[in-house]
Amino acid sequence: MSNRHGPWGLRFFWLYAAAYLGFVMWNALAPATMERSVAGGVSLAILSGLGIIALAVVLALLYGLLCREEARPAADRGAAADRGERLEEPGNS
Amino acid sequence: MIHPFSLSATLVFLAFVGLTLGLSFYLGRRVGGSQGYFAAHGQIPWFVNGIAFAGDYLSAASFLGICGMIAFYGYDGFLYSIGYLAGWVVALFLIAAPIKRLGRYTFADCLNSRFDSRGIQFAVGLSTLVVSIFYLIPQMVGAGVLVQPLLGLPHWVGVVLVGSVVILIVVTAGMVSTTWVQFIKGSLLIVFSTVLVAAVLGRGITAQSGGNDGYRFQKAGPIEMSWLPSGAGDLPPMADAPWSGWEPALRIDAVLYPVYRPVDLVPFRDDDDRLHVYSVERTEGAQCLLREAQTLWTSATGNLWINGRPQGTGAGAGKEAGAGDGRLHPGGYVEQLPGGIDATGPLSPWRFLAVMQESRIIRWASRKLTHPDGSFATIYWQKPTAGSQLLRPGESPTFAGIRGTRWWDKVNFLSLMLALFCGTASLPHILIRYYTVKDESAARKSTIVGITAIGFFYVLTLFLGLGAMTSGALDVSDSNLAAPLLAKSINSWLFAVITAIAFTTVLGTVSGLILASAGAVAHDLVRGSGFHGLSDYETLRIAKAASILVGLLAMGLGILFAKLNVNFLVGWAFSIAASANLPSLLMMLFWRGTTRQGIIASVLVGMLSSLAWILLSEDTFVHVYGLPADQAVVPFSQPGLVTIPLSFATLVVVSQLSRRGD
Predict the structure, then answer these.
(1) Of A78, B30, B87, B201, whose CB count within 10 A is highest?
(2) Which B-chain residues 439-498 have CB contacts (< 8 A) with chain A?
(3) What is the DSSP track for B11-24?
(4) Which of A27, A43, A59 minimises the CB distance to B391?
(5) Residues B554, B555, B560, B563: is their CA dihedral positive or negative?
(6) Residue B654's pLDDT is what?
(7) Which residues of chain B have pLDDT under 70?
(8) What is the 3-state secondary structure (H, E, C) of chain A?
(9) Is the pLDDT higher at A49 or at B26?
C-alpha cells in the first residue's frame, strides 16, 4: 500500500530526512564550528536551525500546491463521469 | 522565588478559563454518541483542525519547557523546537492521508484495518494508554507551574485544579468542544506570543548588574587566590581579609568551607550569623573575582531559609526586607553589551540575535550541597557566559556531552533527536485528530496549516527564550516559569493573558490526551479483551469512567514530578510513542509482508523496551530515584536509537516467521 500522492510525499520526506540528519550529525560531531558568526553576526547554529524550520514549512506548502494540481484533473474526471462519460481509475501514484 | 498575588491578572485569567469552560459545555451538548464524542462526527473544517493541531501540540512542553530551556541554556532549547517540528514532516508526507483513510476512532482502528485482530487492538490500546500518561505528566507539571506566579498558590494546587477542570470538560464534552477550544487557544497563543516577541524586540537589551526587583548582586575583587586555600585547615588569619571590610562585614564559615570550596563556592557568615555564599570566578594569573550567590537552605529541623533569612511571604522588597522575608532575587540579564553601550534600544529580529551573540550574559547555575549537620542547601550562582557560547550546541546539562569526548553522550543526543523526529506522528492525541475531518484531502491540508503555525511559533520560542534570558525576571530556581515571567516583566496584563492562554492550552492538551486514553480503553482494551456487543451508551460510560481514572493518575504523577523540566519529561513520551507506534504504522502502510503477529510483537517490544530503557537510565537514576549516575544500567539515557530499530526488526522477523508458520 502506498500513500496517495506518494511520489511527492516520499521524495519530500527523504529530502527533509537527509537535511535533518545532516543538521543533527553536524551538531553532534562538530559543535564547536556552530559557534561561528555568519550572516550579519548571527551564529551558524541559529542560522542552520532557522533554515531547517523554514525548509519544513516550504516543503509542506509546496506539497500542498502539488497535491492541489494533481487533484484538479481528478476533479475534471469526476465532472466527466457526472456527465456520463467513461471514467478512468487514477490509481495510487 | 515568591510570586505575589495579582488581582488584575487573576481576573483576566479567570475570565479566560470561564470562557473556555462555557464554550466547552455549550459545544458539548452536540456530542450525540460515540462518533461525536471521539471524532466530532468528522465534520471539523480543515483550517480549524490545522490550528487545533497547533493548539494540541504547542502544549506546556513547547511554551514553558522550550522557552525555559532557551532562557537557561540558549541554543540547546531551540534544538527541541527543531526536533518537534521535524516530526510533523513524517506526519504530513507519510501518515496523514492513509491514517484518515483506514481509521475511524482510534489509531488502533487504522493498524487493525487489514487484520481485524483482538490482539492488535489490545496491544495498541495499551501503548496508547502508556504514551498518553507519560505525555500527561509534563502537562500537569506545567499547569502547577503556571498557577504559582499568577495566583500565588502552591504547585500541587495548580495540578489538582487543572486535573479537576479537565475531567469535567472531558466527561461532559468530547472531541467537538476540545477541537474548537484548541482552535481558539492555538490562535491566541500564536497571536499573543507574536505580541510578546514584538515587545521584547521593541524594548531591546539593557546592561544590568541585577534583576528587575532592584537588588544588585555584589561583585568583589580581584583578590589573590591565596586567600582561598583548598582546605579549611590552611585558612590564613582573617582579620585583614578583603571581605572583613565589606558591608556587612563577613567571615568565612570554616565548618562549611570544606563542603563548598571544592565546587568553587565560599560560605561566609555576617555578624547576625546569616549565611552568605559567593562563587569563585578565576581571572588572570593567581587572582579571582567573588560573585554573590543565592542560597536556599533547609535546616535540620525542616525550616526553609532563603539568602540567610527565614522563608518570606512576598511582602517587603529585596535586600531591605526583614526577617520572614527571605526570597530569591530574579536573575537573567546582560552584563556587558557589544561596544560597552548601556542599552541597545529597539532591535530588528536579526540584529537582536547578532547583539546576543556579542554580549556577555549572566546565567545561573545550581548545585545541591549537604552540610555536615545533615541539612541541605541549594546554591544558585552567577555564570558570566559569552553570547557566542550560549548560541551554540552543548551548553545545557542534557546536551553538554556532545562537546566532550565520550561517544555515548553524542549517541544520547542523536537518540533524542531521532525520537523527536519519529515521535510526533505516533502521538495518540495527534493521530485521533485526523478522524475529526471529512476526508484525506482535509487531513493533509490541516497538517499543512498545522506545520506552518507550529513552525512560526517555534521561531518565536527562540526570541521568547532569549528575551527571558535578558529580562531580569528569571526565577533562578525554576526554568519552566521563564515565559510567563518574561510577559510579567513587560506588562501585568500581557502576563495575565499569556498565562491564561498557556493555562487553557494545558487544559486543552490534557483534554485531548485523556480523550485519547478514554478511546483506547473503551474501544481497544475493552474490545481487545473480548467484550463485544456493547451499546453506544455503555461504550461512552466506560470512556468517561476511564477519563476520571486517567485524570486522577495524571494528577498524582504531576505532583510527584513537580521539579523536572517539562521538556525533559516530554522527551520520554516521544521515545515511547516512536518506539511502540511508528514502526508498526509505517510497515503496515508500506510493506505488504506485515502480519498481525508482527504488529503485536512490534508494538509490545517497542513499548516495553523503551519503558525499561528509561527506567534503567542515568537521567532517571539521578532525577527520579536520587541515585548516583554511575549505578545506571544502560549506557545512555535516550532509548530511541536502540528501541525504534528494535521495534522495526521485531516486526520484520515475527512477520516472516508467522507467514512461514501459516
Answers:
(1) B87
(2) 440-441, 444-445, 447-448, 451-452, 455-456, 458-459, 462
(3) HHHHHHHHHHHHHH
(4) A43
(5) positive
(6) 94
(7) 1-6, 24, 27-43, 60-61, 103-105, 148-151, 172-176, 232, 237, 239, 312-325, 528-534, 563-568, 661-662
(8) CCCCCHHHHHHHHHHHHHHHHHHHHHHHHCHHHHHCEECCCEEHHHHHHHHHHHHHHHHHHHHHHHHHHHHHHHHHHHHHHHCCCCCCCCCCC
(9) A49
A54 touches chain B (CB under 8 A): yes
Whose CA is closest to B283, among B384, B153, B378? B384
CA distance A77 to chain B (A): 17
Shortest distance, CA A88 to any CA of chain B (angstroms): 20
User: Would the pTM of this model clear 0.90, i.e. be above it?
Assistant: no
Tens digits of residue pLDDT in B389-399? 889 888 888 78
The answer to whether the Cβ–Cβ distance between A56 and B413 falls below 8 Å is no
The helix (run of H) or strand (run of E) holding residue B407 is helix B407-423
Across the interface, which of B350, B351, B451 has its CB nearest the CB of A57?
Answer: B451
| pLDDT value at residue A48 | 93
Whether B403 contacts chain A with CB within 8 A? yes
Whether B587 contacts B603, CB under 8 Å: no
Taking a C-beta distance cutoff of 8 angstroms, is the pair B332, B364 a contact? yes
Question: Is some CB atom of chain B closer than 8 A to the CB atom of A62?
Answer: no
Quote ipTM for the complex. Answer: 0.83
pLDDT of residue A92: 37
One-letter amino acid of B269: R
Q: Nearest CA to CA, how far is B37 from chain A (Å)?
A: 28
DSSP, residue by residue, B570-614: HHHHHHHHHHHTHHHHHHHHH-TT--HHHHHHHHHHHHHHHHHHH
Across the interface, of B351, B392, B445, the residue whose CB is closest to A64 is: B445
> A44 falls in which pLDDT band (50, 70, 90)?
very high
Res B322: pLDDT: 46
Q: Do A16 and B459 touch (CB under 8 A)?
A: no
Q: CB contacts < 8 Å between A and B, how many?
A: 143
Amino acid B60: pLDDT = 67
Q: Is A34 on the interface with B (CB under 8 A)?
A: yes
CA distance B541 to B539: 5
Angle at B359 between CA B355 and CA B365, to 5 degrees: 130
The answer to whether B455 contacts A27, with C-beta atoms less than 8 Å apart, is: no
Contact list, B350 vs chain A (CB under 8 Å) = 40, 42
Given this model, what pLDDT does residue B438 score? 76
- Does B226 contact A at CB distance below 8 Å? no
Nearest chain B residue to A60, by CA: B448
- Are B75 and A43 inside 8 Å of each other by CB? yes
| DSSP label of B522 | I
Length of chain B: 662
At residue A74, the pLDDT reads 55
Residue B351 at interface with chain A, using a CB cutoff of 8 Å: yes
Contact flag B353-A12 (C-beta cutoff 8 Å): no
**Placement of cell 516583566 in the chain:** B489
User: Span A52-81, mean pLDDT?
Assistant: 77
Between chains, do A29 and B410 touch, taking CB under 8 Å as contact?
Answer: yes
Q: Are strands B287-292 and B275-282 parallel, antiparallel or unpaired?
A: antiparallel
- Residue B143 to residues A79, B155, B500: CA-CA distances in angstroms? 52, 8, 11
Report how far apart, in Å, the C-alpha atoms of B183 and of each of B187, B241, B446 are.
6, 63, 12
B472, B318 contact by CB (below 8 A): no
Please identify among residues 382-401 of chain B the ones whose CB lies closer than 8 Å to any CB of chain A. 388-389, 391-394
In this prediction, residue B3 carries a pLDDT of 58
Q: In a 3-state reduction of DSSP, which class is residue B290?
A: strand
